[in-house]
Amino acid sequence: MPNPLKLVIFDVDGTLVDSQNIICAAMHNAFTKNRLDCPPRDKLLSIVGLSLPEAFERLGEGRAGFPVPSLVEHYKDAFFALREANAHPEVLYPGARDSIEALAARRDTLLGVATGKSQRGARAVLARHDLSAHFAVIKTADDAPSKPHPGMVLEAMRETGIGAADTVMIGDSIYDMEMARAAGAHAIGVSWGYHAPEALRGAGAHMVVEDFSALVNAIEAFRGSASRLREKSRAGAGS
């Protein structure tokens, strides 16, 4: 019997691309336009991965009258302008392209995306790096509630027909790990993004890897554990 398809879902910001400079620049613009002090860089990066309304809600910390809709609008305008000007380009992390191409070439693997970006933003990044063709499914803040709600992963699994036991989420934030675990999927954290490895482990990461070469090996280990769990389940059902 052939091995079932595996679904490997990637976050974008902080996982595939280093987008911290353009994110922080757009955030600074949004707060300036609203005549507010911009939070420090580490606080801005702590909310990367959330949908924009959720991100600004958290940055507002419950302050009355905090202008979330206006901040979202100005952020989007600034981000688009910065991208069009090629200011602060969203560069791929070392090893990202080779790993994606190697995984996409496998007949037993489908690749997906789950990101707090919009569909337009996610597709723009993938197209700029000529990676679009490698991803079978792209789920964004346009399609499901903000991370850590499991909706994006659940929708990706539904669309591909691949179950949670054969799905792994790769991400750099606690929101990615919590989303994956809530969907019943495997969760692999990456150490090169915006949240610390210990935070990822605390949020439920099954493992945290140091570079893309280690990530490919981690996914292989996940394949093995998924197969063993499936065999154990079949054996239990027949006992």
Explain what the structure shows:
There is one protein chain. The model has no long low-confidence stretch (mean pLDDT 92). The protein has helices spanning 20-33, 41-46, 52-60, 68-84, 96-104, 119-128, 151-160, 174-182, 197-202, 212-237, and strands spanning 6-10, 17-18, 91-92, 109-114, 137-139, 167-171, 186-190, 207-209. With 239 residues, it is α/β, with parallel strands linked by helices. Helix 1 (20-33) packs across helix 4 and helix 3 crosses helix 4 (68-84). It contains ten helices and eight strands.
Listing every helix as H and every strand as E from the N terminus to the C terminus, the arrangement reads EEHHHHEHEHEHEHEHEH
What is the makeup of the main sheet? 6 strands, parallel
Given the helix and strand composition, which structural class is it?
Answer: alpha/beta
Please list the strands of the largest sheet in the order they lie side by side. 5-4-1-6-7-8
> What is the helical fraction, as a range of percent?
40-55%
Low-confidence stretches: none
Beta-strand content estimate: 5-15%
How many DSSP helices? 10
- What would you report as the Rg, rounded to the nearest angstrom? 18 Å
How many E strands?
8
Span of the ends, CA to CA: 21 Å
What spatial form do the alpha-carbon principal axes imply? Answer: globular
Q: Mean pLDDT, nearest integer?
A: 92
